[in-house]
Amino acid sequence: MIGRLIAGFAKLLTGATAHWTAPLSDARQRVYFANHSSHLDFVIIWAALPAALRERTRPVAGADYWMKGKLRRRLADNVFRAILIERAGPAGSPATATQSIQQIAYGMGDDKSIIVFPEGTRSMDGEVKPFKSGLYHLCRMKPGLELVPVYLANMNRILPKGEVLPVPLIGRVIFGAPMWMEPNEDKTEFLTRARAAVLALQNQ
pLDDT for 145-163, tens place per residue? Predict the structure, then answer.
């Protein structure tokens, strides 16, 4: 009940509408991967999903943000059922990165889907930055995952960095056609192809 209310409120607050370029099966375990420009991003994608898909989808988010304050913690744990990643530690540390991927894979189990942002940090200018390697390593750890590119339009303008209240603009959540990592696909080739799939949705 609370989840439905938050989904409705998020849509009302941002004016975000969902656009689907291909149908998705309710039964598949998948990764929704998107561009990242605001703290509302995973909430908007989660809210845009049909209820049946939303129920089995867990956002991946930074523990440093969502563990601040009782309300954020309660929403992350009880409503979004988010997989909270500890981002503290040496930048680029292989051990930290591996631990995060293992935590995500464990949180997915055998049937949960996730929402991730492969850029690794928010884009301040709306440009989609090169993808970090986490998505590649997750696909290696869990072969056969269905990957759905998502493009968030206008979110960097609706909630700019440093702002608390959204600016009244119309956002769009564009879901692309599913893709998969090819057998023996090179990391650079895969990440380039995944980023291109998100960029291709800009004009949809």
Answer: 999 999 998 765 555 555 4
pLDDT at 165: 47
Closest listed residue to residue 119, CA positions, set 32, 195, 42: 195
> In which domain, by residue range, is 21 found?
2-203
Q: How far apart are CA 61 and CA 189, in angstroms?
A: 26
β-bridge mates for residue 116, sequence order: 33
Is this model's pTM higher than 0.90 or not? Answer: no
Q: How many domains does the chain have?
A: 1
Concatenate the DSSP letters of all residues of the chain into one string: -HHHHHHHHHHHHH--EEEESS---TT--EEEEE---STTHHHHHHHHS-HHHHTTEEEEEEHHHHTSSHHHHHIIIIIS--EEE---SSTT-HHHHHHHHHHHHHHHTTT-EEEE-TTSS--SSS--PPPPTHHHHHHHHSTT-EEEEEEEESHHHHS-TT-SSPPS---EEEE---B-PPTT--HHHHHHHHHHHHHGGGG-
- Helix 134-141 with 94-108: angle, nearest 10 deg: 50
